[in-house]
Structures are given as C-alpha cells and as structure tokens.
Design goal:
By secondary structure, this protein is an alpha/beta fold. The chain is built from 26 helices and 26 strands. The protein has a 7-stranded parallel beta sheet with strand order 15-16-14-17-18-13-21. Helix 15 packs across helix 16.
C-alpha cells in the first residue's frame, strides 16, 4: 500500500487512471507520456525551455505516488548543486514525505556519499578530504618541486589536465598509453601524485568518480546491493556526461557479458539535449546518447519540443541554425506564444561602437521597465568583456560578470577552510602547507623543506614528522602543531558556528587582515563564513547547535532506507552508513560543511546578484534565461572560434554553442558584430559570422544596412552608430510585450558653442569618455562657452562645449 493509494504490482501500473492524478494536471501530451512511461529504459530529448526539470521531478513523484518505488529506490543524477537543490525543493512541495534520504545530487556529490559509506572497501580514511581544483593544483606543484620536475617542460596546470583527463577515461597510471618520453614523465608524475593523495587521505573530483566506479566494478556484493536498491535511475543533462560517468551509470544498471553490456532490471531514463552539448573541452561526449539508445536497447524515445520560454522568431532562428548540424538526433522547437519581436542585428565599425550601442539599447529597455538583471550580454571569449565593461562603467550602468571568483575560492576563505580541514584530518598535507606560515610565524621555505624530507624518510604526514626537525625551525613548527592540536581539543562538543569562530579568533587570520590596508573586505568575508556555516547546518537539518556524534550513533537499520529489513546484511562495510531519518547525514557538521565547501567550489553555477546587467560567456549562460539577450562578436574567427573552423566536429560544437546562446532569450534577442576589434593587443578586421547566413531572413531585422561599410562617425566614437530605429526608420521598441509602445530618440548631436546651446543646470548629459554626469554650472557664450559637470565615476570637470561631445540624457 503506497502513501497515495493501492497499486497492483503484478499489473505494473496504477490501479486508478493516471490522468486522475493532480500531479499530472497541465502537462502537455509529450510531458505526460514521459512522466507516465512504463518500466524500462527510455531517452527523453528535452529541448531548451521545454519543462525538463518539471518532467523529471513529476516522474519521480508519480513513481512514488503510484507505489512503484520507495524513496530509497530512486537515484537521480544532475550536473550542478543548484539543479539538485531545485529538484529536492520541488519534490518536497509535491510529496508528503521526507525526501532528504533520497539519492538526488551531482555525480561528485553522490560519489562522495557512496565513498563515505564504503571508505574501508575504497581504501580511504573515514575522514578523507576533497581537493578542489586549486588545492589539486597546489598539491601537484608541491610534488613537482619535491621531485625536481622541470615546470617549464611540464607546467603544473597541464599536468593537472593530463591527470584529470586520464581519470575521466577511467585510466590509472599503469593503464595510460605511453607514446613518448614526455608521456612517460607525465605518467610518472601521475603515479607519484596518486601515492601522495593516498598517503594524505585526500581525493580530487576525478578520484571521487573513478574510485566509486572501481569499487562497483571490483566488488560484486556492493554492486549487486545497489543494483537491487536503485530500481529507477534518472540522469539529467545526459549530453554532458563523459566516458567515466556513463560507465558508472552502466555499472549501477547492468553487467558486461562476453564483452557486451547487458542491461539489468533497473529502469534508466536519460534526459538531455544533444543540441546543447557544449562541453567537449571538459570531456563531455555527445556520442553517449547514441550509445545509450543502442546499449540499453531503448524502446521509448520522447521529444519535448514545446517551448515555454521564447517567441517563435527566436525559436525559428535556433531551429534553422542547428539544422545545419548533421550529427544530431533531431527535434524542432515550437511555441504557442506567437512570433514576438524580430531578432535585431547590428553592425558596428568597432568593438567600442558596438559596446556604446548596447549601452543605449539597455538604457531604453530600462526606461521601458525591464530590470537590468533580465538583460544579458553573451560573448564567446572572456577577452571580449573588457570593452563592454568599460562602456557600462563609464555610463554608470551597474553590471556583474557572471561566474567570477566565488565565495569559497577567495584566498581568505581558503585559508580559514584549511585550518578547519586540518582539525578534521591532521594528515592533510595540502592544508598544512597552506597555513603553516600564514599568518607569518617565522617558518620559511628551508624549514618546510627540512620537514618534507623528514616526512618522506619516515613515511609520515607533515604533522606527524614535526618532532624530527630540530633547532629553531623545529621549535616554530612544533608551536604551530601544538596550536592546531589544542584547537582540535577545544572544538570537541561545540557547534559548527563556535568551531569557526574559535578558529578565526585563534588562527590570527582576523588580526592579520586588520593590519592589511585593504583587509576590511577580507574580514567581512571571514565573518560571512560563520553565517555560511550557520545557514548550512540549518538548511541541512542539523540544528544550529548540532555537534559531532560518534558514527555508531548515526548507523541506521535497512528499514530506515526503505529496504527489506529481512534481507541479510552482506557485510558491515557493505551496508552504507544510512542517512539519519531526519537529516539524511552521516557526517559531523564540520565534516559535512567542509564537503559542502569543496563541492560548491567545484560547481560552475553562481547565484544571481543585484539588479545589474549580466555579462558572461556563452558557456556560462547554459541553463539560464533572460528577457533580453545580446550576443556580441558575431564574427568569423571569434564566433565561430578560429580554433574550431578547421575541424568539422569543432564547427558543429560552435553551432551548438550558438544554439544555446539564442535559446537563452525569452522576449528580445540582439546579435551584433564589428568591422574592427581590439583583441590580444592587436586590431582585427573581421568578416561577419557565417552563422548569419544560416538564420531565417524573415525572423531578422537589420538595424544597420547589411553591408554598411566604414561610414564616418557622426558622434565621435566610431562610425556606423544607429539607434534602434534601424535602417528602415521604424522604432525598435514597439510592441513585443514590454508595455506601451515607445520610440527611441537618436543621441543629440554635439552642441557647437552658441547662446542657445540647450544645456541647463541640473540636466543629465552623456560624454563618451566620462559617461553620465550632471550639469553643475554654465558660463560663457559662443566659442568660449563651457560647462562644469559632475561625473560620478570621474569627479567634477570643466568642459569646453565647442570641443566636448555631450548628449542630453
């Protein structure tokens, strides 16, 4: 008997009509079919804006409502913490059950949970720590210095990529094919790096996946346990999976017989969009979708093509463009919202003119009531943002570069986390080295070398080898270790907030930054770490005053996981440390928070900020949507990027990138390019992108003549400037669902000095260099007329009106 009604297990279907469920109300036919699929393997091709997350969560809720699965029998995998949290939030609203014990999360998050449960079998310490990308790079640099590796021949960053790539392909050092002497050296470094991580009890992101996969592959009882447990497996963003992630999914849902994969009894649903596969550079393999259809003998393929985000002019452009790709499964987005505004295309004479045009458009959009946070500027290369940022800054338009330095990646936060990690695991050498002399305590490079030599000779961690170092160096090191050990003793039995406050007070970090001229912001960030920790324990259900408990008190029975209580336990180490019935956690608050910080640091997604224009690369824009989108730099060599143009697969990936960019727009889409652009220190003369020729002409509106050439500037900042009236003279702002029809006025030409120059005190004006300002005073006439103007970004300036090019705002 389910929580929601009876279910005939033998029939394999609900005992009441599916359409009668309130869960299924307002689903379109394709969504309904996907949600109510019978048991079996299926592929759902979910187009942009087609309600993919709704389908996934409703499918899970429907399976539980109809009694086909318990919460413990579902595994749902996605790519970002943000997406996983959204799924949990929606399920909590849909179901009158506690969903915290369900296995819903990112690949890395779920593998972390798996390895925490089976740390002995995985040959890891119970308190193993996770190295984020920066910590991993530091560990590799330390290793290379220790073994005198030539860092010019083998740069640490490239070595990091080599190791990550090998792990994504499921390769240990012994498995990597060696084709050259350089390959041999890289494999040697990889082996030394593995030994170092094992010795220190740390794992990187790639290791989370690889070690989980190997444990499932090599331990039949563990694999069979999870295959019995997870009856329904759902994978989101399947087009972004790499080889190892796909192999991990196969390991949970089938077996290999005579070299051929045979699906098991689990139902696996892959949800994705091959047209949005844009992470090949990270190892994503769009071919996994075709392999899945073949290897899992997929009988059900459903296309979600109805788009709820964009008008049809935008969708027609996306469909026409992506139709030029040959390696796709094929679908066509449609909408019932009507054509909407045409896609506006602008050609500027320079990148600066392009940026100025965008600023003017944004001003008009803001006057029409559009929030700035609903305006996004997308670019193919980060290098393009500088000119755009300068134009926005000078115009006093608030903006935010999406995906900038995140909270847990800031130096002061990483210092504080290193102290916390050392409390949790004294053998974490990476954290030890980060803070052993920070704040400075007289421990120099020579002292650290002596300690590393002693540790290596004894086979100990740096912490345990301190006693082997004598003299002043040994005394300073012993004092540091004593400080850490005392802190560790003082944190027993106190809450996470108190632990962090204690560390901040006794580590010297706050006092250090107080002495720093620019340390105020860093101190505020350290204070925010306390708030982040308190928010974390509250959200995770620990309670504000929760303290660490022995692991034995957290171990639960099989019944608490929704499993058969009569099923024999295979081995104590095989049965996972079950989630607490209330919190779903098996770790102490500190260990859980450190895991959270490491996983968040590795997450590509950032939170939305104030009401500001959003700037980002097209890659960073995936998964986001905005009312108004500007796609800039639509030029050959830039978009499509020059690195891809000689490679057929590369060009198809660039087209998918463009498809993603187009489908971010809900109501209004702009595309722009410039005849000249400063990039990498030189002026480039560009041809407009070939992608323009792949768009439907009927959906476009050219704001400048299609081939306008190099027109002289009328306004002093590069030729070709046009307001949204465009070549045809019609307003760019009429209709389109943005409120009343309005008309943009072109900038007022610069006023030559005359008694009637049109300026007055208090008037807002715009200057190409200094941005917006307020007229404070006026004096003189004719050629001697000048104005005193207060520019918020540049201060008060006197400008001669016969020279300055001012535009009333």
């Amino acid at each position: 008997m389910s929580l929601f009604g009876s279910h005939d297990a033998s029939a394999g279907a609900p005992s009441f009509p599916a359409a009668a469920s309130p869960l299924l109300a307002n689903l379109n036919p394709e969504q309904l079919a996907a949600v109510t699929l019978p048991a079996g393997n299926a592929l759902i091709l979910a187009g942009a804006g087609s309600g993919k997350t709704r389908v996934l969560t409703t499918r899970i809720a429907w399976l539980m409502q109809t009694g086909q699965v318990s919460p413990g029998g579902i595994l749902a995998v996605t790519f970002t913490n943000k997406a996983a949290k959204e799924m949990m939030t929606r399920l909590t609203a849909m179901l009158p059950v506690n969903v915290r014990g369900m296995w819903i999360g990112t690949f890395h998050g779920l593998c972390n949970r798996f390895l925490r449960a089976h740390w002995k079998l995985a040959n890891l310490p119970s308190t193993f720590q996770i190295l984020d990308t920066q910590d991993q790079l530091s560990a590799i640099k330390r290793l290379m210095k220790q073994f005198n590796v030539d860092d010019e021949r083998f740069p640490a960053k490239q070595t990091q990529w080599f190791i990550a790539g090998a792990k994504e392909d499921g390769l240990r050092p012994r498995d990597v094919e060696v084709r050259s002497e350089d390959d041999r050296k890289k494999v040697e470094i990889y082996q030394l790096y593995e030994e170092q991580c094992q010795r220190e009890g740390v794992v990187d992101f790639g290791e989370l996946m690889l070690r989980s996969y190997e444990l499932l592959r090599d331990n039949d009882p563990v694999r069979e346990h999870y295959q019995r447990r997870f009856r329904h497996i759902l994978i989101d963003e399947f087009q972004d999976t790499n080889r190892l992630q796909y192999a991990w999914i196969k390991m949970l849902s089938g077996q290999t017989v005579d070299g051929r994969f045979v699906p098991g009894d689990s139902s696996v649903i892959a949800v994705g969009d091959d047209d949005q596969s844009i992470y090949a550079f990270r190892g994503a393999r769009v071919g996994n979708m075709a392999d899945f259809v073949r290897e899992f003998d997929v009988q059900h393929q459903i296309k979600l093509e109805q788009n709820y985000r964009s008008f049809s002019n935008i969708l027609d452009s996306a469909n026409a463009l992506i139709g030029h790709n040959t390696k796709r499964l094929g679908k066509n987005l449609r909408t019932e919202q009507g054509p909407g505004e045409p896609v506006r295309v602008y050609e500027a004479t320079s990148d600066f003119a392009e940026a100025q045009w965008m600023v003017e458009e944004m001003r008009q959009l803001a006057r029409d009531g559009i929030e700035r946070k609903e305006m996004a500027v997308l670019y193919r290369s980060n290098a393009q943002s500088r000119v755009i940022e300068t134009a926005l800054f000078n115009a006093a338009v608030p903006y935010r570069v999406y995906g900038g330095l995140r909270f847990f990646e800031r130096a002061e936060i990483k210092h504080a986390l290193a102290y916390l990690r050392l409390l949790e695991n004294k053998d974490d050498d990476t954290s030890f080295l980060r803070i052993v002399n920070f704040p400075p305590r007289g421990i120099g490079a020579r002292s650290i070398e002596l300690l590393q030599d002693a540790a290596r000779a004894a086979g100990h961690s740096l912490h345990d080898a301190v006693s082997a170092v004598g003299g002043k160096a040994g005394a300073n090191l012993s004092a540091f270790v004593a400080k850490i050990d005392v802190l560790r003793e003082q944190t027993v039995g106190i809450s996470l907030r108190e632990i962090i406050e204690l560390v901040l007070d006794h580590s010297g970090l706050v006092e250090h930054y107080k002495a720093d001229r620019e340390g105020a912001d860093r101190i505020e960030n350290l204070e925010e770490l306390v708030n982040a920790a308190e928010s974390f324990v509250t959200q995770e259900g620990f309670g504000r005053d929760a303290v660490a408990l022995p692991v034995d008190e957290l171990r639960q029975s099989p019944a608490s996981q929704g499993l058969d209580p009569n099923r024999p336990v295979l081995d104590e180490a095989i049965e996972p440390l079950a989630p607490d019935a209330e919190t779903g956690e098996t770790l102490s608050p500190l260990a859980a928070f450190l895991t959270h910080a490491a996983l968040e640091s590795g997450d590509n997604q950032a939170q939305a900020g104030q009401d500001a224009v959003q700037l980002m690369t097209v890659h960073a824009a995936k998964g986001l949507e905005f009312d108004c989108v500007f796609i800039t730099g639509m030029e050959e060599g830039l978009f499509p990027h020059e690195n891809s143009m000689s490679d057929f697969d590369g060009l198809e990936e660039e087209r998918r990138l463009m498809y993603v960019a187009i489908t971010r727009a809900r109501q209004r889409l702009y595309m722009s390019h410039s005849q000249t652009r400063m990039l990498h220190g030189q002026t480039r003369y560009n041809l407009k992108s070939r992608f323009y020729d792949e768009l439907p002409e009927g959906a476009l509106k050219w704001l400048t003549p299609k081939n306008q050439g190099f027109a002289p500037s009328a306004f002093g900042y590069g030729g070709g400037y046009a307001t949204s009236r465009g070549a045809g003279g019609g307003s760019s702002y009429g209709g389109g669902g943005f409120g009343k029809e309005s008309f943009a006025s072109p900038p007022v030409p610069p006023q030559k000095a005359a008694p009637s120059h049109g300026l007055r005190s208090g008037m807002q004006v715009f200057h190409n260099k200094f941005g917006e300002g307020t007229v404070v005073a006026l004096e003189g006439t004719g050629d001697d007329a000048r104005a005193q103007i207060n520019f918020p970004r540049h201060g008060v300036k006197w400008l001669a009106l016969s020279v300055a090019k001012l535009t009333p705002v």
